[in-house]
Amino acid sequence: MIEILSPSELPRARAVGALVARILQAMKGRATAGTNLLEIDRWTREMIVEAGAVSCYVDYAPSFGEGPFGHYICTSVNDAVLHGKPHDYRLADGDLLTLDLAVSLDGVVADSAITFVVGGRGSQEDLDLIDATQRALAAGIAAARPGARIGDLSYAIGEVLTDAGYPINLEFGGHGVGSTMHQDPHISNDGRPGRGYTLRPGLLLALEPWIMADTDELVTDADGWTLRSVTGARTAHSEHTILITEDGAEILTLAE
What we know:
The protein is 27% helix and 24% strand. It contains four helices and 14 strands.
């Protein structure tokens, strides 16, 4: 299913995007050495409930996960890159943490992810990983405009990641959003330009380049959800929800 939002729905899309960005920045500020991942999950729940919003994760039970996710935010640490299930772990300085959040507010969903170094002092390898995903995300957004094809966005993302020397996994990527979290079209993190669905004003897309330092292979944790690099290599993930406008793309999950 591909949804196109009407002009009357756009204020709700902007509101939920701002909420997701606000929660992620609040959790980033609280993610210091000694913070438990379960505390981050609890604080996220509190902010979602206070805003009158609904978690997209708690009851989410897709084919690639083991039962309902049961938590409010994904917390992926170090070699974990996607779907990190919060558990009893206290962060340490130097941990590479990805927070991924999707929320529904007044019937519209926004989805975003950030990766950062706990304590702020990461290795050059970690900083390069984060930088590559952020630059790839920016390239994908720059390619998004009415009349462009999904393949144009995938190509722009993949070109940055490939030039930076990182392997690219095509199993998981970006996607449409709207009244639900995961919709068509799928947006691979590499592809051929001029292919795929043609973008139209009112379309919401979540673009999410993610990489592992030395592999494109994933392994699933015993929790049935958390995806890690098969080599134990460090990882990074950057994601924004964007709105296709008449003349380009508007980032809805940009931090203030």
